[in-house]
Amino acid sequence: xxxxxxxxxxxxxxxxxxxxxxxxxxxxxxxxxxxxxxxxxxxxxxxxxxxxxxxxxxxxxxxxxxxxxxxxxxxxxxxxxxxxxxxxxxxxxxxxxxxxxxxxxxxxxxxxxxxxxxxxx
Length: 121
Hints:
Elements: H1 2-8, E1 14-20, E2 23-30, H2 44-56, E3 60-68, H3 77-81, E4 89-96, E5 99-107, E6 112-115
Parallel strand pairs: 3-4
Antiparallel strand pairs: 1-2, 1-3, 4-5, 5-6
């Protein structure tokens, strides 16, 4: 994920995470068709292919991710309003002092809460 969002900067990068339970098994980078530093929209054909790939591997979509190259490190009002994946989480990468960090969020009806995130390699 970090490499993808870094390569997309200064535009927002985006994609999906899939796995089983709470363990991510697959990261799927997807093109941001907006090519914008403040907005993203996953390229539809790539998004559909990602869903087919997740299903073929017998995995579940666990989260979507995108970057805020210039902050903030929390979901925007637009992120919350346009969140289309109930039962999954949102990860946001932000760049602070030229260093990427990531946070995870559960999106509620019109708000969000930060959740714990454990990254293993």
